[in-house]
Amino acid sequence: MKICLIAEGSYPYVNGGVSSWIHSLVTEMPEHEFIIYAIGAETKQKGKYRYTLPANLIEVKEIFLDEYLYEEKNWGRRYKLTDKEKNNLVALITGSKDINWSELFDLLRSKKFENVGEFLSSKDYFDLIEFLAGETYSRVPFTELFWTVRSMILPLFLTIRHDMPEADVYHAVSTGYAGVVGTLAKHVHQKPLLLTEHGIYSREREEEIIKADWVKGYFKDLWINYFYTLSNSIYEAADQVITLFDRNKEIEVELGCPEEKIVIIPNGVEISSYSDLQGAEDEDVLRIGAIVRLVPIKDIKTMIQSFGLIEKEISNVELFIMGPTDEDDMYYRECLQMVNTLGIKRIIFTGMVDVKEYVGKMDILLLTSISEGQPLAILEGLASKKPFVATNVGGCKELILGSKGDNYGQAGFIASVMNYEEIASYILQLCNDKKLRETMGSNGFNRVKNNYKRSSFITGYRELYLSVGGVAWQA
Questions:
Q1: What are the φ and ψ backbone dihedral angles of 322, each rounded to 5 degrees?
Q2: Most exposed among 26, 321, 406, 444, judged by the fewest C-beta atoms under 10 Å?
Q3: Model confidence over 159-195: pLDDT tens digits?
Q4: In sequence order, which ranges of 255-327 are alpha helices (DSSP H)?
């Protein structure tokens, strides 16, 4: 079987999280061929993979959202759009549920739209914005509306114009642009479509936009509704929607995904991989570890503020932030500046490391994200018998405190998002009680060992692929 995985902003350009999940899926199913349809932000990422690609990964199709910068275009063309085509474009921009994705795909992929940038420099686009200005945005500067909508829809239009590789099954690993590409693949090739949502993409974009300085206040709703519209395309088109835990399923249903489509397949970890970890040689130092990428959604700044309080209370404590620092260089520099401003002495940024070489030496693990799915970092930490302090996002609470019928016990503490004082208080409690650390570490290990097996995760997807796509590919 040939399976096309559609990924946005992750594999093969980014380490950890969803990327690790994709790599595991491909590696553990050598009986299938895989294609990666990779949507990246910038063309400069092209070919810069963070992973050694498995032999059964036969193609990486790379699409970059800044490709429009390199298109030649002319201003002022007239496309002669029909009323139906105009209404569909307005529905996309305004977030109306009346959008017909099949008709939109056919329009944007027609010969009429050979150059996306040229359409967005056309008289027809000007007319659309003029209509929106008159109907909804009469008090907003016209030029701001013109350029805002252009920047909003241009990457999507560009992505829709690309050819779709042929496969037996299409599997998007988020909504957003990847979800629309999945919906397009089903429209073009009439093959089964799966969606796996790790975190809720539209909610994550909403959080980012609310906080963003680059979006004017009066355009925030426009952007937010737009991303919800993109997500709804694949909720409607997917044959099956997979999520990782109960709360995610509830949110998907709230957002309009039919409940009967949704199944839960949790992430999994191989317990045996963490059985012989090397412990710390110096037991006089308390070590806190964070397995995390240095990006805003992980809220490293709250982590730093928390540790600033801890360092004032305990002299023999260190924080190891283990993860790549080059994904968002500006954010990394801001974190370093915060460390310096607060006068914190014992934070170590390790950069990208083999987590197994470090995690055994940690006493406590920490995650301060403002949004998550079901973090592999927590699964890895619990498999290592380490207690965790994490924010109450995604599936963190379920992993650490357990769900209904789970009697393994508490594996750490759950804190409020961005509440660095609460986070610090929980860590201090663990720092001051070795027996509590050992008990919670053991509880987490037993939970992961029994409820989050890597073999169960792989078997779940293997059976799902076979149910929708037929027999396995044979070399």
A1: -105, 105
A2: 406
A3: 999 999 999 999 999 999 999 999 999 999 999 999 9
A4: 300-313
d(CA 83, CA 440): 63
C-beta contacts of 26-31 below 8 A and 24+ residues apart: 26/54, 26/56, 26/57, 27/54, 28/454, 28/458, 29/56, 29/458, 29/461, 29/462, 29/465, 30/54, 30/55, 30/56, 31/1, 31/472, 31/473, 31/474
Q: Name the token pair of 350.
A: 């390790």
Q: 358, exposed or middle or buried, with CB in 10 Å at 0-12, 13-18, 19+? A: buried
pLDDT, averaged across the chain: 93
DSSP structural state of residue 279: -
Sign of the four-CA dihedral 103, 104, 107, 108: negative
CA distance 119 to 384: 54
Would you list the DSSP string of 164-214? PPP-SEEEESSSHHHHHHHHHHHHHH---EEEEESS-HHHHHHHHHHH-SS
Quick check: helix, strand or coil at residue 331?
Answer: helix
101-108 vs 176-189: helix crossing angle, rounded to 10: 80
Q: What is the C-alpha to C-alpha distance for residues 354 and 185, in angstroms, rounded to an integer?
A: 37
Give the pairing type, strands 33-40 and 2-8: parallel
Give the C-alpha separation, 311 to 425, whole Å: 12
Identity of residue 451? N
Q: What's the number of CA atoms in the CB half-sphere (13 Å) around residue 386?
A: 32
- What's the pLDDT score for residue 71? 64
Locate 189 and state its tokens. 């090739």
Domains, the chain, ordered by start = 2-64+163-264 (3.40.50.2000), 83-153 (no CATH), 273-452 (3.40.50.2000)
Please give the model's pTM, rounded to 2 decimal places: 0.90
- Cβ within 8 Å of residue 252, ≥6 positions away: 197, 200, 235, 241, 243, 262
- Dmax (CA) for the chain in angstroms is 75
Q: Measured between alpha carbons, how far apart are the two ends of the chain, in Å?
A: 10
Q: Is the pLDDT at 475 greater than 50, yes or no?
A: no
DSSP states of 222-248 as a string?
Answer: HHHHHHHHHHHHHHHH-SEEEESSHHH
Instruction: Report residue 424 as tokens.
Output: 């610090």
Amino acid type, 243: T
Report whether 300 contacts 277 (CB < 8 A).
Answer: no
Q: 218 with 193: CB under 8 angstroms? A: no
Strand (E) or helix (H) holding 366: strand 364-367
Residue type, 163: D
Residues of the chain above pLDDT 70, percent: 97
In the 8-state DSSP scheme, what is residue 257? -
Q: What share of the chain is helix, strand, coil (3-state, %, to 5)?
A: 50, 15, 35
